[in-house]
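Annotated sample (chain length 191).
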Amino acid sequence: MTDVYWICLFGGLVFTVLTLLFGDLLDGVLDGLELDGLGEFLDPLSFVGGLTVFGGAGVLLEEMTALGTGTAAAIAGLIGLGLAVAMHFVYVKPMKRSENSTGFSMREYHGKLGEVITAIPAKGFGEVLVKMGASNTFQTAGSFGGTEIARGTRVVVVEVRDGDLFVTPFDELTPVDGTPVPDTPTRLRSA
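Output written by the structure step:
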């Protein structure tokens, strides 16, 4: 049984070194190993960590105690399982939740400020540059009011329809009742 413990211990250590060297490649390969229903819990990191601890605990229990082979294997198994569960809930699961995403919804464009990159004709589409998060995006845009908008004009997204933005020049913003508000640009910049 000692050989099994050593194989588990060194196998886990080799897996750790390979993960450090080829982590991104292994991540893609190991994503396919998740089993339906158990996939969230049986992630490779927790499993291999538990197996490595099982091997290490088994070696120590065999060498340092007078326990029988079955008892030592059971205790080593419980220690490995306990660490795998702890690793999953303390490290792996929180890390999976904290992964960043650069994705966003088209609905999030509503109300964003941008700049016309390609002139927008009265009855057609041009292109606008809109800052989303930490990046700039280029989107197809039409004129909300049906007027031509020149390149370099600062605009605000009024509507998002069928994946296209409909914008109006920033200076032409007026409230719903139609009365102009002179300080609109100041208020929008602070928002």
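Annotation: Confidence is low (pLDDT under 50) at residues 183-191.
Annotation: The radius of gyration is 30 Å.
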